[in-house]
Amino acid sequence: MRKVLLLSFALLLVxxxxxxxxxxxxxxxxxxxxxxxxLPGVNVxxxxxxxxxxxxxxxxxxxxxxxxxxxxxxxxxxxxxxxISTNGKSTxxxxxxxxxxxxxxxxxxxxxxxxxxxxxxGAISQVSAKTIENRPMPSLDxxxxxxxAGVLVQANNGIPGGAVNVRIRGVGSxxxxxxxxxxxxxxxxxxxxxxxxxxxxxxxxxxxxxIASIEVLKDAATAAIYGAQAANGVVLITTKKGQGGATRLxxxxxxxxxxxLKTLDVLSTQDYLNLRAEARDNRLRTGMDTNRNWxxxxxxxxxxxxxxxxxxxxxxxxxxxxxxxTGRIQxxxxxxxxxxxxxxxxxxxxxxxNEAIFxxxxxxxxxxxxxxxxxxxxxxxxxxxxNLSSFNQGIPFSTDGSxxxxxxxxxxxxxPSNRIYNEDGSYFGLLGSxxxxxxxxxxxxxxxxxxxxxxxxxxxxxxxxxxxxEIIPGLSFKTFYGLDYRLVQGKQYRDPRTNxxxxxxxxxxxxSTWNTNFLTTQTLNYSKKFGEHSLNAxxxxxxxxxxxxxxxxxADGFPSPEFRxxxxxxxxxxxxxxxxxxxxISGFGRFNYNYxxxxxxxLTTRADGSSRFGRNYRYGFFPSVQVGWNVSEESFMKGxxxxxxxxxxxxxxxxxxxxxxxxxxxxxxxxxAVYGGVAGVTPTQFENPELRWEKxxxxxxxxxxxxxxxxxxxxVEAYNRESKDLLIGQPVSWTxxxxxxxxxxxxxxxxxxxxxxxxxNLKTESGLNWNxxxxxxxxxxxxxxxxxxxxxxxxxxxIRVGHAVGTIxxxxxxxxxxxxxxxxxxxxxxxxxxIPVLDDRKVIGDTQPLYFGGLNNTISYKGFELxxxxxxxxxxxxxxxxxxxxxxxxxxxxxxxxxxxxxxxxTPGQITSVPRxxxxxxxxxxxxxxxxxSRTWNKVDYIRLKNVQLAYNVPTALAQRIKxxxxxxxxxxxxxxxxxxxxxxxxxxxxxxxGIIPQSKNYTVGIQLGL
Length: 1011
Hints:
Elements lengths: L1 H21 L1 E9 L10 E4 L5 E3 L5 E6 L5 E5 L6 E4 L5 E6 L9 E3 L5 E3 L7 E5 L22 E5 L8 E5 L12 E4 L2 E2 L22 E7 L2 H4 L10 E6 L5 E16 L8 H16 L3 H12 L8 H5 L6 H5 L3 E13 L3 E13 L6 E14 L4 E15 L12 H4 L34 H7 L1 E20 L2 E20 L12 E24 L2 E24 L14 E25 L3 E12 L8 E12 L12 E15 L10 E8 L2 E8 L8 E14 L4 E20 L8 E24 L4 E18 L6 E2 L2 E5 L6 E4 L1 E5 L6 E4 L5 E2 L8 E5 L4 E11 L2 E11 L2 E3 L1 H6 L11 H5 L34 E3 L2 E12 L2 H6 L4 E15 L19 E11 L1
Helix pairs in contact: 3-4
């Protein structure tokens, strides 16, 4: 026995030595071929085995091989995989080349389905993370401007983190919501406005540098998998995930400033005095000197300036300068990523400060994100992601019942002779000071802005938990749970030192809104290849429950401006509370098939049931079909070298719109009057059991192409979108006790063309590269039907059959009579009139652009990168409430633009478009000079240099000397230049520009470090 043991031990030693002799370590480093930067997390596997490892933070690796001829496989997302033979070497240096097609050729089509772009049939636009990273924009949707064909992004105003208007392929509804559905890592976000005192933005919680990719589903066939929520398109946002390998730390810091796009060129004290005297004299004909002295004494309240010398010495006070500021921009980010073959993680945190150009308007946000993926077994994968965000917005403040107290609106209108500060630095013209404050705007708006306070705090939790189990090869089951929770708290205080709250001794208002949006989805996914046939099938069930609760209160009678909480107030004024909820259940399925990646077919269907609709139409059915033909895969195309890729595709599908009130179909009761000491309830809304879904039916045709080995690629799309069963409130007889009855009685149509063009203009061996992306969209919108055969919606002449939603229907301005300086108009027969009537109105344009898009260029050379984006809109008109006041041109005690002063009519025979100044603006047998007409509607066509970034990637060798894996330095600017003819602050605004905060020019400098 002893001999047997000794022999066995000896044999074990021999075998071990043989094994050690055959197994040896190979080490090396993996770098990016383009810039020499190390690549952490590269998967290194010994071919034909399960032996492998990941590269570390510096790109290094060590792996054991069993023989001298072993082959190593190197693979990394976004790079071309390589196989390298060891050939007896102990060290290997590897350079991986970027695969320009790897990421762009993969698209997400909803519910986690990832397909090769050449096999995708729908109208999908992609926006990569690189195009939006480090842009100083608190809300992600602004970064989409000019990036995707057919996606129109308009800033309601420049409030950091404020609401943005996003429309995909036109306006698809008259009264229901027109915003797209946003899906973040599978969680369908609530787009309801939960804000208290300003409009909210559903994407403001996201740090843009946590984004990995964005897909925009534009046609109904692709979006139909989301059914009733997808009528206005779907925006799929995928955030960053962890990658295996050693833990990698990344630091990103940038800072800068925001400045006004422009300041309005308004009149000096001397020009204002001359204009108002001239306006008064044109009405009274009592002489310029007489009227000038009257204006000085009674309007400007300046009694000690009568001679020309004294008038010339009067100061001009710059109210815009007092209201504006150079805003501060700061951003700090730290992220970590890593893992092993079982578990990967991504962790990030950020802190952002973004101040607007008007004082006391700002945005401060802190975010934290954690993403975990764990492979529990060969069959079970568990994943979770959570986004935490808390941000505070300082919001613009207006006076009670009027936008005129907002400095963004009124600073340019203030009398230039009005002082802002006293010599001791206190505010001029406060109530009780004995100082008169002249003008129609009879209070110091800088003091109002300083004394009053308003802010809104939002707390978001957006997260998900999922488990995926592979039942058999190719068949998997996934259970998914998502949560979108937000708490929005707003507070406003009107100071007793201001005109609004002086008599009330201060006024305080608070409001809080809770919104909980819970979602669970259960899906089966089957994927299989049979020879040259490939198929993928998805079936799922979904349940969604959303609850909203709101409380509000107000009070006045505060003992001091230092006490601003409601418990300090003497007089409670109001208290309110409401609760609302809805539920939706859904079943859906999708079947994708392709043969040789040549012939493509996709069938999708979804059924939704919603508590929002009438009991007879609770359920909606939304099917779609898509077909495609990869012509370039045909044998007859092989000899055509110029045309490297060609695919034609078509789709037909339906989607629904459920963005209406939760109780729109219900018969409602509300609190009524007290009778006999008893409080009662009264009916407030008809029940409508027939209320059903708004439906969109879209036909889409597309061509994807590539020339010269894909040096030129792009897409051309044409679509027709029919919106039916639109919800409109129909007036009913007052004897019913109701004012209106909401029903499905409208129709409209959107038709359009979209073009995307991508070119690799230069690609040299020296490392000089130049790429261009261009996109263009044309949309024609038409209302095709209203109820009862009406041609115009009662109470809203912007909705007319045969015209676009937002049609401008008004009198037409004909210029100025050269002999008299009076404004002229066209009547209905195109004759000149001085008193236009309602029958003279005609369509002059519309409020939606006809064409829009963007042009992006990226130039790189040996570590340097220059990226710049132009964005444009054409064919839109807008009515600017602020500009309308400035156009009065001496009619009342407002300031005006220098342009209107310089170009006003003053002499018989003068040709100009600006009428003479006339006190009150209403001439004998005439109308107000700024009456609603084409004169007050402005073309807002523009081309804007939206973003410019210049970056330098520090050479790897230099970075490693200071213990860094990589380093990048960059400078960036946004909204740097705008080409337009618009005389207001910003042609990009959406709405009436009444008291908006204009956008700003932003300048930042930053650094990214890999540790």
